[in-house]
Amino acid sequence: MTDAYDPAKDGATMSYAREMSYGDYLALDGLLDGQKPLSDAHDEMLFIIQHQTSELWMRLAIHELTAARAGLAAGDVRAVFKMLTRVARIFEQLNGAWDVLRTMTPSEYSDFRDDLGKSSGFQSHQYRRIEFMLGNRNQAMLKVHEHRPALHAALLAELGQKSLYHVALDQLGGALGQDFSASYQMTAPHSAQDAIRDAWAKVYRDPQAHWALYELAEKLVDLEDYFRRWRFNHVTTVERIIGFKRGTGGTSGVQYLRRMLEVELFPELWQVRGQL
Questions:
Q1: Whole-angstrom Cα distance, residue 20 to residue 94?
Q2: How far apart are CA 191 and CA 265, in angstroms?
Q3: Is the pLDDT of residue 252 over 60?
Q4: What does the alpha-carbon distance between residue 144 and residue 152 come to, in Å, rounded to a whole number?
Q5: Which residue in 42, 15, 37, 196 sits closest to 107, CA to CA?
Q6: Exposed, middle or buried, 80 (CB in 10 Å: 0-12/13-18/19+)?
Q7: Could you report the per-residue pLDDT of 164-185, keeping only the tens digit for each?
Q8: d(CA 52, CA 155)
């Protein structure tokens, strides 16, 4: 009979009374104690964990977008490309989470939906910050966060600085001898400008002469592509589970989410394709 494998014989540390363990480093005690179902419904645990893990991924997206914006402003485009690719893949991961949530049926969700009260993903301050960072800025959305002064202040501060797309346009304008700052809308969604679309067209018509901008444009399109897929999967999941009922937070539910599908973060980068 073969003896059971003993990791200690290969030099593995087996006692962590005085060493930092895996659970210590990741603060798993607090993390795994954060699921507090309010009902006896089996599927409420799925609902909680799906949203908690989504918030963790959004936390990483904010971390990457913050660094990407700063790096782009400093002209460190190579590092920025890696970060933007990572954010796109984060949203690919978030897309996969909807597949898990869609295993829950309308009947199963109804077992605990009333226990949610008025809480809703509509109130996610991290999602709102990501939208603000990417340029979809709607000042009316601040009100839902007024009960949390620190979070409200952070979102308000975000509206006071350039979005990622604004910084990208600074790079575009600087390379082509143009200034697009007059088109920046700090507290409203970015609206397409012909001059910006024409500038991107110059980049796309001669990629070799503007390779960094060309690659930046494609990284931004890639990011928005995955972001759009996330929104679409959100709509599909909600419609599959609750149909056209109003959301727990009072929104029109599917109808509200469908309106969000029409939002373009970087409109000129999509419009320029028809101009080439």
A1: 30
A2: 9
A3: no
A4: 9
A5: 42
A6: buried
A7: 999 999 999 999 999 999 989 8
A8: 20
Residue reference for tokens 């962590």: 16
CA 23 to chain centre: 27
Question: Residue 46 in contact with residue 101, Cβ under 8 Å?
Answer: yes
21-24: Cβ within 8 A, 24+ apart: none
Q: How many CB atoms lie within 10 A of CB 56?
A: 11
Can you list the domains of the chain with their CATH numbers?
A: 41-242+251-274 (1.20.58.480)
Tell me which of 89-98, 99-108, 190-199, 229-238 is least confident: 229-238
Distance (Å) of CA 64 to CA 81, 98, 204: 11, 22, 26
CA distance 214 to 204: 6
pTM of the model: 0.92
Going from the C-alpha of 48 to that of each of 44, 54, 94, 109, the distances in angstroms are 6, 10, 15, 12
Closest CA to 125 of 202, 192, 59: 59
- Model pLDDT, residue 78: 85
